[in-house]
Amino acid sequence: MVDKSEKFSWLVRVGYFSRAVLYTVVGLIALTSAGRIAEGTAGIFKAIEDFPAGIAILWIMVFGLFGYALFRFCSPLFDIENEGSDAKGWGKRIGHAGSAIGHLALAWSAFKFATNRNSGGGGAQEAAAGVLGVEFGGIVIGLLGLTFFIAAFNQAKKGVTGSFMNRISPQAPDFTRMIGGAGYLARAVVFAVIGWSLVGAGFMSKGSDQVKTIGDAVASLADDGIWFTITAIGLLLFGLFSFILARYRIIPDLGSEGKVPEFRAG
Question: Residue 94: which of 217, 195, 204 has the closest Cα?
Fold first, then answer.
């Protein structure tokens, strides 16, 4: 009989697999198809939809990205990865919350394509418009942008220090540290762009139409020449890295203690 912890572990691994597909496609499209990347997130899911069994892949991504978002929400709520409750720990946990919200938005986009309900509009922009329409909505959007800045900082720090290896099995391939580090640095750039778009919409009254998700953020870098190419390669590597995580990531146990200690080398 499969217990709740094992079911949770499988859901998270499907989430990492879904994230792997997403970032691999983002990187490939950015490097090979200027027209598709100009469409932002919609272009990414259109590309996946055109794959053999594309609709089935989209449904896997719906559940996987939703499961990954739940996993990330468990960090600020329950601290399942032992980040702690000091300022440093809460910084990481708030960053995970920003990642969770971003992946929920991606899960919703995948759902719209999987059910042929996509109208070509931006789901993130529509949601932001709704929030901005209520009292203090701008503050909410702006604060969300700050969580993405925190997440971007944490991603960059992981890329430089390699601390992410603490939660990966030592059986993972030897090149995991290299591609993971490059991937996290590229992801930090994307998260910073998303954060700036949210801060602009929330605190600077620039409008909800400027709010960006992953594909839109990458598309906005298209005029930056070599930096765009480096970021695209990094995101492709992050996709490959996420495939490794789907197999070798140490998932916190949801048993009696609710968490698992970090895996440290040496």
Answer: 195
SS3 109: helix
Instruction: Return phi, psi of residue 52, to 5°.
Output: -60, 130
User: Which residue in the block uniquely carries the two structure tokens 């597909």?
Assistant: 21
Instruction: Tell me which amino acid residue 118 is.
Output: N
Residue type, 253: D
> Which residues on adjacent β-strands are paired with residue 168?
249
Q: Which two tokens stand for residue 228?
A: 């765009």
Q: How far apart are CA 237 and CA 24, in angstroms?
A: 7
The CA distance from 91 to 262, in Å, is 18
The count of other CB atoms within 10 Å of the CB of residue 261 is: 12
Give pLDDT tens digits along the chain (266 positions): 345 567 778 888 888 998 898 899 888 888 887 677 777 777 788 888 888 888 888 898 888 888 888 888 887 888 777 778 888 888 888 878 877 887 888 888 888 888 886 655 455 555 555 555 555 567 888 888 898 898 899 899 999 999 999 889 999 999 999 999 999 999 999 999 988 988 888 787 776 677 777 778 888 888 878 888 999 999 999 999 999 999 999 887 655 444 444 443 33
SS3 168: strand
User: Contact 107/66 with Cβ under 8 angstroms?
Assistant: yes
Cβ-Cβ contacts under 8 Å for 24 (sequence gap 6 or more): 236, 239, 240, 242, 243
